[in-house]
């Protein structure tokens, strides 16, 4: 089939490659404009642009996809279907109505749950034991279109936003090939979403990373995992901001971990240190001090003297 593909970040690279390798003709790739990064303000191409260039596919980067010039360019491609994966702009009806087989979105959750910008991270933060990918017909609403296919992905206790992202990207790559075959064979089944079962996974912010040790240890531990690689959970230790990259909920049977007030360091060993929380305690294993490289807690303790009774946080 003739496919126009729309996507921007790493998540959208795997599905693009799988569509090409399945034998479909990707006639155009649309991605967000290059952005300036670093001190040099050098323009950096999106991951999807880099992948499309490797395959020799034409890349189009309009500032606003709803502009008439963008709509006309897509029409000239005469796509059978448009596939969208984390593109970054809302498509107008003028584009949604172009392909005869529809605009198909690859969404990183088991819809109707977790509509919105950050379903991967929120599934970890909220303590889900599984998530997945859904292919769906796009419509005017935000992730509200009829579903086509789903695949489940288990969330392991060690999964972070980063590792789960990669697992879902690979799952989405397989699912979109299956969905396109169903569209081509006219066997695709439309299933309406139940709006009452949905929740909104709003965009992540830096402020979300500020830790509140009045909260339960298991809630904080999930937040730390969910906010990797960005924006990362952080706190203040000894007057300096420290990002926490890995922690574990302390053994609740240990009487040492039942003492102290929230935010208080209640144990320091050669390998790690433990902070009291509103419920339970959290043992810090890996962190990123201000102006330093990521390090394990043992290396951090070598250069920072922490003692029982010290307070963590502002």
Number of strand elements:
17
Largest sheet: 7 strands, mixed
Number of helices: 8
- Which stretches are poorly predicted, pLDDT < 50 over at least 5 residues? none
> Helix/strand/pairing class, anyone?
alpha/beta
Proportion of residues in helical segments: 25-40%
Average pLDDT over all residues: 96
Topology pattern, helix = H, strand = E: EHEEEHEHEHEEHEEHEHEEEEEEH
Q: Report how far the terminal alpha carbons are from each other.
A: 57 Å
The radius of gyration is 23 Å
Instruction: Quote the beta fraction.
Output: 25-35%
Strand order of the largest sheet: 5-2-1-6-7-9-10
Set out the fold topology.
Elements (H helix, E strand, L loop, with lengths): L1 E6 L5 H9 L3 E6 L4 E3 L4 E3 L2 H8 L4 E2 L7 H10 L3 E5 L7 H4 L6 E5 L7 E2 L2 H7 L4 E8 L9 E8 L6 H25 L14 E2 L15 H10 L6 E5 L2 E10 L15 E4 L4 E4 L4 E9 L5 E2 H7 L11
Parallel strand pairs: 1-2, 1-6, 2-5, 6-7, 8-11
Antiparallel strand pairs: 3-4, 7-9, 9-10, 12-13, 13-16, 14-15, 15-16, 16-17
Helix pairs in contact: 1-6, 5-7
């Amino acid at each position: 089939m003739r496919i126009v593909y729309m996507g921007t970040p790493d998540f959208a690279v795997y599905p693009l490659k799988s569509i090409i390798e399945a034998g479909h003709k990707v006639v155009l790739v649309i991605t967000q404009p290059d952005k300036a990064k670093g001190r040099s303000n050098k323009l950096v191409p999106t991951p999807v642009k880099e992948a499309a260039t490797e395959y020799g596919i034409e890349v189009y980067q309009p500032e606003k996809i709803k502009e008439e010039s963008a709509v006309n360019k897509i029409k000239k491609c005469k796509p059978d279907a448009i596939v969208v994966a984390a593109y970054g702009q809302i498509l107008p009806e003028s584009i949604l109505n172009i392909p005869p087989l529809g605009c198909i979105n690859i969404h990183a959750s088991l819809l109707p749950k977790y509509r919105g910008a950050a379903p991967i991270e929120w599934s970890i933060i909220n303590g889900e034991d599984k998530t997945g990918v859904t292919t769906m017909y796009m419509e005017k609403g935000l992730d509200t279109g009829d579903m086509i296919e789903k695949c489940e992905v288990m969330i392991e206790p060690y999964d972070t936003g980063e590792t789960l992202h990669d697992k879902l990207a690979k799952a989405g790559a397989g699912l979109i090939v299956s969905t396109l075959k169903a569209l081509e064979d006219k066997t695709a089944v439309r299933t309406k979403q139940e709006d009452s079962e949905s929740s909104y996974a709003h965009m992540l912010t830096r402020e979300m990373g500020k830790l509140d040790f009045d909260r339960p240890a298991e809630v904080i531990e999930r937040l730390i995992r969910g906010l990797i690689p960005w924006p990362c959970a952080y706190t203040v230790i000894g007057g300096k901001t420290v990002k926490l990259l890995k922690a574990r909920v302390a053994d609740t049977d240990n009487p040492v971990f039942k003492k102290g007030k929230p935010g208080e360091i209640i144990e320091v060993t050669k390998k790690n240190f433990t902070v009291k929380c509103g419920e339970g305690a959290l043992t810090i294993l890996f962190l990123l001090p201000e102006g330093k490289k990521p390090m394990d807690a043992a290396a951090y303790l070598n250069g920072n003297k922490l003692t029982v009774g010290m307070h963590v946080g502002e």
